[in-house]
Amino acid sequence: TSTDPCGQLAWLEGRLVAAQQAGRKVYITAHIPPMMDLWESTFITAFNAVIVKYSSVVGAQFYGHTHMTAFLAPSAIPNYPPVFVGGSITRVSDTNTCYQRYTVNSQWEVTKWEQLMLSAFQAGLTPSNALWNMSMNVGSALSMGTGPITRTSLLAGANSIKTSPAAFNSASNLLGGGYPSSIVNKVCTG
Hints:
Blueprint lengths: L7 H14 L4 E4 L11 H13 L4 E6 L6 E3 L10 E3 L12 E7 L5 E9 L1 H4 L8 E6 H4 L9 H13 L1 H11 L5 H9 L1
Parallel strand pairs: 1-2, 2-4
Antiparallel strand pairs: 3-4, 5-6, 6-7
Helix pairs in contact: 5-6
């Protein structure tokens, strides 16, 4: 239909109903985040409606595609489960290779979010002799507090980045998926 490409949302809703009836939680994983312009606006609206309807079932959402680390917590959509967008394991232009590591609790809430980065770009090394360097805990860098990383703590982290130069500086390389800070600062500040 015009709001459900190939019946995918009906399929998703069926899986979410089954999880709800079984008393289970799920994670949504996909390639392209649902807020990007690559999705038709009607699909985004319909997808978000399904996610909000079953927000008690969805522990978190994990996406890729952007080659930059990000989080989404749409303030205009109450009860929207946290969205995490991972950096890229493959190098693109000026990015460093990185990947995300998440720790979850028994309630399926993300309690720790780390990014590990191959620092080949900044060190001028080739992938064969570069080392994986664990960055700081992303949640701590964004001043999200302790406990589960929720929609509320993500919004607090976003506010911290907007209002605190120190938080912006500590977050810029992490959220850049390995882009050097100078590139991220240029993109974020115009």
